[in-house]
Design goal:
Rossmann fold; single chain; 173 residues
Length: 173
Amino acid sequence: MSSAKILLERIHQDGEINGQIVKVEQFLNHMVDPVLIHLLGDDIATRFSPLPVTKVLTAETSGIMLAQAVALKLQVPFVYAKKKRPITMPEYFAAASHSFTKQESTTLYVSKDVLHQGEQVLFVDDFFAKGSTLKAIEEILAQAGARLAGAAVIINKSQRNDIESILTLDDLL
């Protein structure tokens, strides 16, 4: 059975769909089913395996588990953009982002020590809604002189078809 069918069954069993809001906290973004995450990560990694990806990048917090699973399959490091800059990060790239689900704005930070010019970066996250997180990641990559190799999410709630996803909002309706 495909990862999309397994995920869809799990959403119907343990989740909830209410318009644009997809509640998956019992298995994806609060309590995490590691077997499901690795299945989804393997699916996404397979789609990007022909590309010369050097790093996987996500935003703190919900994308971290997926980024780790994708990076493991691609055998590259993963980085997560932090929502608070620690004092141990004196040099950094930063960009603003707005969370559709949390209804709040934040700044994402990536240390200059972990992202370098010329890298080919795959962005992954749990959801794609309005694109604010991806826009911030693109700004960070531009500051670093790195290139976006692609973008992938578990669920794409937008109409953008340049975002790889396991499911789209249309699949859920």
